[in-house]
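B., you asked whether I could sanity-check this one before it goes into the benchmark set. Here's the sequence:
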Amino acid sequence: MLFDVGYDQTSTFGGPVPTPVLDKLATLGLRFTQFHTTAICGPTRAALITGRNHHNVETGFLSEWATGYPSYNNNIGKDSATIGAVLKGNGYATSWFGKNHNMPDWESSVAGPFDRWPTGMGFDYFYGFIAGDTHQYYPVLFENRRAVEPTKTPEQGYHFMADMTGKAIEYLNYAKAVAPDKPVFMYFAPDAAHAPHHAPKAWREKFKGRFDAGWDAVREQTYQRQLKLGVIPPGTTLTPRPEWVKAWDTLSDGQKQLYTRLMENYAGFLAHTDHEIGRFIDAIHRLPDAENTMIIYIVGDNGASSEGGFDGTINEIKSLSGIPTPLEENLKHLDKIGDPDTEPHYPMGWAWAGNAPFQRVKQVASHFGGTRNPKVITWPKGIKEPGGIRTQFTHVIDVMPTVLEASKIPAPKSVDGVKQKPIDGTSFVYTVNQPDAKAKRTRQYFEVFSNRAIYDNGWIATAQHTFPWRQDYAPGNWDQDQRELYNVSEDYSQSSDLAARNPQKLAAMKKLFDEEAKKNHVYPLDDRGVARRASAKPSASGSDPKRKDFTHYTGAMRLAETAASITKNKSDSITADVVMPDKGGEGVIVAMGRQSAGYALYVQDGKLVHHYNWFDDQRYVITSSEPMPAGKSTVRFDFAYDGGGAGNGGVGTLFINEKKVGEGRIDQTVAGRFGIDTFGVGVDTVSPAANTYKPPLAFNGTIENVQVKLK
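And here's what the prediction gave me:
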């Protein structure tokens, strides 16, 4: 399963990015043109691995936005065993590579619990990251339950997509060499092509000038190719540009220059991903039982993403925090876009262009621009006439029952003694050799962030409620949402709203949505963005949300923010008892975050330093006026917060053995998360929070403890 790839972005489905590996798979197998996701990553993946609707497995939205409501707490239960658990129990070797966004990050420390880690959900082996995304050059990696670091630096050619592909090939070959008759199930989930879009330079340079015509022209050209390929029906209408996307010919030269460069970089990222997947596919084809191996290739977990905002960004975390960067500032970094010290995302105009012929984008579950993704299946032994197209309406919940039917394994009534919830999906094995078979999935609800729809026998009723680029927008008043009605058996792209002409049908569909929502535990609807993300989450530190004192020791590393001591929007104090060597003492005492945002307390050039990184835009550095003494010392950083709301500033003060040795003003602080990088004592792993050293800058003395007090 790819990540944040729209319906029309690959050449296999008419898009502008050449994907020869996927093209070849389509000729060897089947293309599905009415496959659907939930419109957002974590819920889609929960539905994929459980065969159940995302609200039924407590994943109504993402873990970073989790609330205490049962359908939104992100705690997949033992009554919803994954495809990994079921196949493992039936003799398969099971593995998971890449993205894991289906466990709460507050459970991602050594304190556990571990039953929602991949290895606790039926997967023998895991190699990847636990978050919504990761940095391709500086990933936050875990192997099974152990934090690991990349084996090379970006300067030495490291890239996560190549790394995880190599690991998957290695595992596959090893498993089949040791037990050649043991069947294999592998879940291969790259971070590509989610932001940060990190394309190796050679790959992004391939696309220089390819998008100069702009998003209006690229979308039109794509639409014409789609018609020729047959991946949209004849007569399909290309939906018009919405008001939230500017016409390309109205943009300034500077805007065009930045926007095309961001798209060239994305295209390079996606093309590089296709190349790496080619290595993986070649390894599968070399297996002795390759003829009876099914590959299900899902091109995206939602539609193309508009989360880069109107102008795009080179700092994804800053953009997601709702803080724009002036065009002139972004243009200064034009030649570095895609490099390790940038975290780019293209502007929303390219997301709209990437979802042709549909309306809307990722997160907008009311429309196919958010939920319709390409799918390709190969199965040499099972597909009698490869190269075809299948048009039956299918959904991501249908994948697990398809795998079970193809494997001749019944869905279990209980797993490890726990009675199982019914599987919501329906196998689509019947479509493989019956191109004209009537679709077995006749009804499906959709809901993400209060954007919602109900599909029933060729009709779909929709209600668009929130905007992906407006995390602050939570209007409530759901009954006031504009309702739309489409006959998608005749109107593939949702281009002709029939609500006004057929109010009785619309009313019946609204009633049907309500029935499905109650049945699948969708309610209560919650449209809060920033407020939901900022709400208190459970903590690995215990059940007391009012805990103020934390003590950490050397070896504490790769702690997610929610599993560590969170110093946001309040005064705090960080105290460390350290022992410095006689000469040359240096290193990180404690650090949180990465190059896009974070802080670090460290010793460099003999001085104690506190470095606060505000979105790589402003860096506030306080350096001690006196050197660190050899031997045992107590150092402290105090921060006196101004108060008056979130994200405000304050005064930082450094102490060595209770003597004040430095003070400085920090004008702005990060109100939300620093990103997906982590907290560590004694090292700053991979992507550094400070830009004055190379990671990991391991402390070369002794850190006896680090105490964090929240005030």
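One thing to flag: Residues 253-285 form the longest helix (33 residues). Otherwise nothing jumped out at me.
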